[in-house]
Amino acid sequence: MTRTTVLSAQSTEREVLVSLETAKGSEELKVEKVLLTGARHPSFDGLNVEAAGLRLVQGAIPTGPGMETPVKEIYVLGDAAGPPYFAHKAIAQAIQVIDHIKGERSGFKRQMLFPSCVYGDPEVASVGLTEEEASAVGRKVNIGEFRLSGTAGPEHG
To answer: At residue 7, what are phi and psi to the nearest 5 degrees?
Structure first.
């Protein structure tokens, strides 16, 4: 269920009753188990970023071309540069930094896109902008759907 907020979860001996706020309104769902995850965010505790002439914007240090901060020759990448918090994002940003320092044009000409996935049942993956993000920046959006049950996976021989 996407675009859904969990309002509460009440455990009984046999199940968990979850109260949800969905795009269609309030719903209740009975499930066997609930997986609770936490949000990741960078920690700047103990660092005085202001002393370096930097500042935090929405919990991250803003960067420009080549991941350089507004303070010349100070670069930020990975979690400190903001979400998504993926190691493969930090590696791609490190390449941008090196290219920028060497004075070479980076191979990354457009916004970098980072794939994300959840290994569950069913598995869920995404890359790029959400429908809302694309619309907000003036992109034309086409939506398509395909039922994965129609694919020839191992369960289909």
So the answer is: -90, -40
Count of Cβ atoms closer than 10 Å to residue 151 Cβ:
9
- Kindly state whether residue 126 falls inside one of the protein's structural domains: no
The rounded distance, in Å, linking the Cα atoms of 157 and 142 is 32
Contacts of 38 (CB under 8 A, 6+ apart): none
User: At 66, phi and psi to the nearest 5?
Assistant: 70, 15
In a domain, 66, yes or no: yes
The region that residue 98 occupies, defined by phi over 0 for left and psi between -120 and 50 for alpha, beta otherwise, is alpha
Per-residue pLDDT of the chain (157 residues; tens, 9 = 90+): 778 899 999 999 899 999 999 989 999 999 999 887 777 889 999 999 999 999 999 999 999 989 999 999 999 999 999 988 888 899 989 999 999 999 987 665 556 778 888 888 778 888 888 888 889 999 998 887 777 666 666 554 4
What domain range includes position 98? 52-102
Any domain includes 42: no
Q: Give dist(CA 21, CA 5) in Å, integer.
A: 5
Please tell me the pTM assigned to this model: 0.62
